[in-house]
Amino acid sequence: MPLGEAAKDFYAFFKSIWDSGFLNDTMFVVMGDHGARTGEFRSTIQGKLEERLPFLSIVLPASFRVRYPELVKNLEHNTKVIITPLDLHATFMHVLKYPADPSKSQLTRGTSLFSTIPRNRTCQDALIPEYFCPCVQWLPLNIAHAHARISALRVADHINSLLAEDSTVNRLCEKLTVDKIINAWQEVTSVKVRTFSGIQKGIGLGFGKPEFQPSSSPSECSYQVKFRTKPGYGIFEASVKLIEGHFIVSEHISRINIYGSQPDCIKTSHPHLRKFCYCGREN
C-alpha cells in the first residue's frame, strides 16, 4: 500500500474514534516496536539510534487530566527520560490496580509512567543492553580542531545560501562570516552500538547472542558548534554531521542571542529569515 494511502487510513481511523467519543473515557496508546531496520539510512549511526527509539504516543481523556493532575505531571516529566516497553506495561498495571502502583512493590522490572522516573536514569538502570542503548555523550572539542572550524564555516555558508535564495533578501541582508568559534562538542555513541550487527538466532523464546563487527575508524561523526558571526555579532548553534568526508548541516540552526532591530528590513516580508539577517545593504 502506498505511504499516502496508509496515512489516509490511519487518519480516518483516528478521526472516527475521536468523532465517536471513544477518547472521552479511554487512554489511547499508539506505539511502534522499533524504528527503521532497513534501507541506506539504517547503516548510519543516526539510523542505528533511531532503530532503538520507536514511536510512542499517549492520549489521555480530558476528565483524567482534571481529576489526576499529579499523574499527568509525572507522565509529562517522563517524556524527557529514557524508558522501555516494560515501563509501559507497568503503566497499564498501575491503571488497572489504581491507586496501588505495582511497579513499586510487585513488578521486578519497569516503572509506571505515572510515577516520577529520575532524569538521570541510565540504560543500565533500565536494564537496557549496551548495544541497544540510544544514549550518547557530548564531549568538548578543541575549537582549534579542523572539524570545528570547518563545521562553523559550513553553517555560515548554509545561512548565506538561505539568504541568497530570494533576490530581495539577498539585496538587503549582509553576507555573514565567522568571527569567532565559541564552543564545539562531538557526539560519541557506545562502541557496542557502533559495531552491533544483529542478533544470532536463539533457541525457543531466547533473544539469542548479539553479534558485533570488528571495530574500525568511524566513517561518520556528529558535532555541535556555537559561533559568532559578523557583521551584527549574531551567535548561532548548529549540528553538523561528517559522513565519508562530507560536512552536512542540520536544517535547524538556533540563534541564541537577541537580534533586536537588525533584521527590520525583512521582518515583515520574510519573517522566517529574521534570525539570520543583518540589514546593512540597500535600505
Automatic annotation (TrEMBL):
SUPFAM superfamilies with a match to the protein in the record: Alkaline phosphatase-like
UniProt-listed Pfam families: DUF229
Record-level GO cellular component terms: extracellular space
Domain of life: Eukaryota
InterPro entries noted in UniProt: Alkaline_phosphatase_core_sf (IPR017850), DUF229 (IPR004245)
PANTHER family: FI08016P-RELATED
Protein name: Uncharacterized protein
The organism of origin for this protein: Desmophyllum pertusum
